[in-house]
């Protein structure tokens, strides 16, 4: 599989980040994966890396329930970024929450591509990377 898209995972659960990394590496051993336990650090990474005009696109998997800054607060801050950054980061909510209010809130957010329930599967990653490379 030829994946040119970068992956960013922001989840305060280190185990979930490991599962994601292992799952993605089974599909593409050379994938560029950045994981962050802190949404603040993840946000800073996005601002720094995707402000550069020569950087590629990224797929961001964002958890909702995190300390310090939750996923909704992250999305509020993300919405304030320059459009050139926002257009290069495709956000997927990746949460264990099956609460319909969370799903509807994510669907209503213009920066969220889709709401996914944990755990992330190889099939879901394949669909996402296929749609990103089209």
Strand content: 15-25%
User: How many domains, as an integer?
Assistant: 1
* Rg over CA atoms: 14 Å
The name of the CATH topology is Rossmann fold
The number of helical runs is 6
| Count of individual beta strands | 5
Q: How would you spell out the order of helices and strands?
A: EHEHEHHEHEH
How far apart, in Å, are the first and last alpha carbons?
13 Å
For the largest beta-sheet, the strand count, sense and barrel status come to:
5 strands, parallel
Key terms:
134 residues, 43% helix, alpha/beta, Rossmann fold, five-stranded parallel β-sheet
What does this structure look like?
- Helices cover 43% and strands 20% of the residues.
- By secondary structure, it is α/β, with parallel strands linked by helices.
- It has one domain (10-124): 3-Layer(aba) Sandwich (Rossmann fold).
- Strands 2-1-3-4-5 form a five-stranded parallel β-sheet, with helices on both faces.
- The mean pLDDT is 87.
Q: What's the layout of helices and strands?
A:
Blueprint: E1 6-10, H1 14-27, E2 33-36, H2 39-49, E3 58-62, H3 71-79, H4 83-86, E4 89-95, H5 100-108, E5 112-117, H6 122-132
Parallel strand pairs: 1-2, 1-3, 3-4, 4-5
Q: What is the compact description of this entry?
A:
With 134 residues, the chain is α/β, with parallel strands linked by helices. 43% of the residues lie in helices and 20% in strands.
């Amino acid at each position: 599989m030829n994946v040119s898209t970068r992956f960013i995972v922001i989840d305060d659960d280190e185990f979930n980040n490991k599962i994601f990394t292992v799952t993605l590496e089974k599909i593409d051993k050379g994938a560029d994966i950045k994981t962050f336990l802190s949404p603040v650090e993840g946000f800073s990474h996005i601002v720094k890396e995707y402000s550069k005009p020569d950087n590629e696109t990224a797929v961001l998997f964002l958890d909702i329930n995190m300390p310090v800054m939750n996923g909704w607060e992250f999305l509020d801050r993300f919405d304030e970024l320059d459009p050139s950054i926002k257009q290069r980061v495709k956000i997927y909510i990746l949460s264990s929450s099956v609460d319909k209010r969370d799903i509807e809130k994510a669907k209503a957010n213009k920066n969220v591509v889709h709401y996914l329930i944990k755990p992330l599967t190889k099939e879901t990653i394949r669909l996402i990377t296929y749609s990103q490379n089209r």
